[in-house]
Amino acid sequence: MWTRRAVTRLVWPLGAWLACGGGERARPLRLATTTSVHDSGLMGVLGPAFTAASGRPVEVVAVGSKRAIELLATGQVDGAVTHSPVEEAQALASGRIGGRIPFMRNAYVLVGPAAAAGVVAGATDIRGALRAVAGSGRRFVARGDESGTHQRELQLWAAAGVPSESAFILRIHGSMAEALALAAREHAFTLSDRATFLARRGDLGLAVLFQGGSELDNVYSVLEPAPQAGGDLDGARAFVEFLRSPAGRSLIGSFGVDTVGEPLFTPVE
Questions:
Q1: Is the residue at 41 inside a domain?
Q2: Do 217 and 193 form a contact (C-beta atoms < 8 A)?
Q3: Which SUPFAM superfamilies match (predicted)?
Q4: Are residues 55 and 28 in the same domain?
Q5: Are residues 206 and 113 in the same domain?
Q6: Mean pLDDT across the chain, nearest whole number?
Q7: Structure pTM?
Q8: Cβ neighbours, 10 Å, residue 154
Q9: Which of 6, 170, 172, 180 shows the greatest Cβ crowding within 10 Å of its Cβ?
């Protein structure tokens, strides 16, 4: 039972509730995925494609990366899609998860009101940009939900020498889409994965104000369950194989081209 606030569950039967080789209903593959993969729309493409290819329905819960790892470690899901490398490495080293397979990447970007571009105009790296934001008198919307993006925020504020509990930082305990919407209403800055921002920028009135540099690299991985967790390891590995197949890589690499004019994610080897 899902009890996390702002959880989203999606099921894609696509006529494939029947297993490929027989007449019994296949149990859904349960996946916990970071909200950015959901909010960008990518999981809405990958889930049905995997179901069509495998005959296995998919049930998705969209949560922050830390929560996704917890759900996997306690056997509540069969696999997880996360983008919090430090927490992933810790979970793997401790045996709470059974495997970590990177499969795609994009980047984080600092976004804010287009009229505020001058605030960070002189910054040469993200640390300088965040120090400029801190001194600007404007607000910064923080996820505050222990997601991969939230963890990166904390790392970047620490690197910039700015306390993450500063009064100008507004913590919302919400998704990437919610953070972008609030930043638009408050004429504030926020850190977003590039895919979700481009997919949802619409009439937000926000623009990318700083980008580039290794500190903003954003790698997504599929996590497999540890043996003691009781998750469906075979199902998780089938999902990994699909994502790394030519068909899966093509879907990932082309996602966004038709809607925003550029790929939103890049497959990794």
A1: yes
A2: no
A3: Periplasmic binding protein-like II
A4: yes
A5: yes
A6: 90
A7: 0.86
A8: 15
A9: 180
